[in-house]
Amino acid sequence: MGPRINDRIRISPIRLIDQDGEMVGIVETDDARRRAQDLGLDLVEIAPDVRPPVCRIMDYGKYKYETSKKEKANKSKTRVSELKEVRLGRSMKIDPHDVEIRVQQARRFLLEGHKVQIVQNFRGRELAHRSRGDARMDDIVHRLGDLGRVELAPRLNGKRMSMIISPDRTKIEAFRRKEASAPKPEGGASSGESPGVEAEKPDSRASGSSASSSGPASVGSASSRTASPDGSKAKSDRIHSTA
Description:
The chain is α/β, with parallel strands linked by helices. The chain has helices at residues 29-38, 60-77, 96-111, 130-143, 169-181, 204-242, and strands at 14-17, 23-27, 42-47, 54-58, 83-87, 115-121, 148-157, 160-167. Residues 188-243 have low confidence and may be disordered.
């Protein structure tokens, strides 16, 4: 149920605030209502529990919209945090690329305001090397340290090691400010492109010159090979003629 407006306001007099937010003072309700109508606005009772009640001249439709918008914003801020689980495979044998995928998933959950439970399973004799699991958990804590904090330290339960990381609002706000202030890549080559990429592209002119320079050399070597039999024959002819 919304506030009383216009003809629904029965009490008189009222304490009136005008459309600019300035206090007018105590006036009769009919006078305040006519004043609102002349401006094409509404007379809205905003403090009904005081005497005389406080009313304000405003656009009630706009007031409802802004009130609804504020309520939605407050609900989003007070959104219930969920516990999201991120599993690091079924054993310690997991590819580093897959670990990176899990870390990025955990970062997304933290940015959304959720707690994250990191789970590492051991299989067979892997349990004898618990230190490897501890080292992996420490690495993940380090990689998530700019967004969250450890709420529950790593602990082993059977063949399952787990820990809980909670989002840190201060760190998340700092991270978002840093992301917003980071320079955006301009058109053309992407910011992640290596500086020597263009130099590695094949040059057609260089290839052509290389081919042309290598061409005569190969022809010359071929000529020397074909000339060899003729030379041998000429030498043989000279020997016969001498004889």
